[in-house]
Write a structure and sequence with these properties.
The chain is an all-alpha fold and about 60 residues long. The protein has one domain. About 85% of the residues lie in helices and about 0% in strands.
Amino acid sequence: METLLVLWNFGTMEIVLIALAVLLLFGAKRIPDLMKGIGKGIKGFKDGVKGIEDEINGSEDSTKK
């Protein structure tokens, strides 16, 4: 478990290097589109999870009545 925690312990230098690598790979013009796509994906995922939770809660309510 400790090994997994060490992998996610990023310092400032590591974050800067990752940001530079992303900038070099995608270019400055494509990064906003990439972030927009990621945001839409996360929103869609959250909406899907909420829909499933609503279905579960709705079926629980209907069985109690």
